């Protein structure tokens, strides 16, 4: 059994592999095995791995399963104490892995953790997809230490403390294999987006803890598969976020939160149409709501199982305020601002 299995899920990412994989291999250390799981790429990824990176173990998937199910398929055949799900567009640093492994070894209550993510393009700023640890508001809107909506802070060490978080980014997620398997991994039906938040929420409901370990630092390109303005990304984010809420919210909150989200989602759709002039994003939100309505019953058994197994009703890192109100009405654009006024 591997001590740590670093697993990079790849789809047509030969350029990213060529650029960032050498540092992963050079800075992994003893007891670490690096895998690349390929989602049936059509580019030169496989030939590149075989000729230039023979130290990597290759897992060839039979089709593009997406992020969530792609990882489930890949990890099913890997025996390890810890999995580290790593995006192909992550630039690791010399000492990135040791703090993560060391923390997990000393804290058995921790199911997962993440490093601090900074931007490849602006190395003094946080990166959108995870920054220094993820949280969520009452209505399902995710945010980070260092990033709220599109406001990304510069890193001045203000979020360098080890802290409990609600969700760890899927861009660089270390998780105990036993905990991953205990909750049946990522929800493959999501395909991509919100799947790591959903996974972490299910773990938190079981009383497990998630942490950010800022001593570990990596740089992230971000948007390697879909650009931020892509309507498909909008569709997946809204559909999957609603599904996650349906699965994980306690009974006494579900009806209220879903009613508020109905209003807020249509408000967001018309904002995209009227202010951003994006008909495609407007349509994507409407399609996402319809898709959620069509498949909601498919998740009824999941919801019943999650709620019956729940041991933690109140998760402190899910904050009891509206992030939209804080950001747009009160003008709190930074993570630290939220707690001076709330």
Q: How would you portray this structure in words?
A:
The protein has 342 residues and is an alpha/beta fold. It has 12 helices and 13 strands. The protein has helices spanning 14-26, 45-52, 66-75, 97-106, 177-182, 195-205, 231-248, 251-274, 279-295, 300-309, 323-329, 337-341; strands at 2-10, 32-38, 57-60, 80-86, 90-92, 110-119, 134-136, 142-144, 147-148, 151-152, 163-165, 172-176, 209-220. Strands 1, 2, 3, 4, 5, 6, 11, 12 and 13 form a 9-stranded mixed β-sheet that branches. A hairpin with a 5-residue loop joins strand 7 (134-136) and strand 8. Helix 1 packs parallel to helix 2 (45-52). The chain starts with a strand and ends with a helix.
């Amino acid at each position: 059994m591997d001590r740590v299995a670093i697993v990079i899920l790849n789809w047509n990412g030969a350029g990213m592999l060529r650029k960032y994989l050498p540092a992963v291999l050079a800075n992994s250390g003893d007891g670490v095995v690096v895998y690349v799981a390929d989602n049936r790429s059509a580019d030169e990824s496989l030939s590149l791995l075989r000729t230039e990176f023979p130290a990597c173990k290759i897992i060839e998937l039979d089709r593009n399963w997406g992020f969530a199910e792609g990882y489930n398929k890949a990890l099913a055949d890997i025996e390890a104490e810890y999995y580290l799900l790593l995006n192909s567009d992550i630039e690791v640093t010399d000492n990135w892995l040791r703090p993560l492994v060391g923390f997990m070894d000393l804290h058995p209550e921790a199911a997962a953790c993440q490093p601090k993510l900074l931007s490849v393009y602006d190395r003094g700023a946080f990166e959108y997809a995870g920054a220094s640890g993820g949280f969520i508001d009452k209505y399902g809107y995710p945010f980070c230490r260092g990033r709220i909506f599109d406001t990304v802070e510069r890193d001045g060490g203000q979020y360098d403390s080890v802290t409990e978080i609600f969700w760890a980014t899927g861009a660089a997620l270390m998780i105990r294999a036993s905990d991953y398997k205990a909750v049946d991994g990522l929800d493959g039906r999501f395909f991509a987006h919100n799947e790591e938040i959903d996974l972490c929420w299910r773990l938190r409901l079981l009383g497990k803890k998630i942490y950010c370990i800022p001593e570990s630092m990596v740089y992230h390109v971000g948007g390697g598969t879909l650009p931020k303005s892509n309507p498909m990304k909008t569709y997946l984010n809204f559909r999957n976020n609603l599904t996650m809420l349906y699965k994980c919210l306690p009974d006494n909150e579900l009806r209220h939160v879903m009613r508020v989200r109905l209003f807020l989602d249509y408000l967001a759709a018309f904002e995209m149409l009227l202010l951003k002039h994006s008909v495609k994003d407007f349509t994507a939100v409407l399609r996402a709501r319809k898709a959620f309505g069509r498949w909601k019953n498919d998740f009824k058994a999941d919801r019943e199982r999650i709620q019956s197994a729940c041991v933690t009703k109140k998760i402190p890192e899910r904050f009891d305020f509206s992030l939209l109100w804080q950001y747009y009405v009160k003008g709190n654009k930074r993570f630290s601002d939220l707690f001076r006024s709330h």
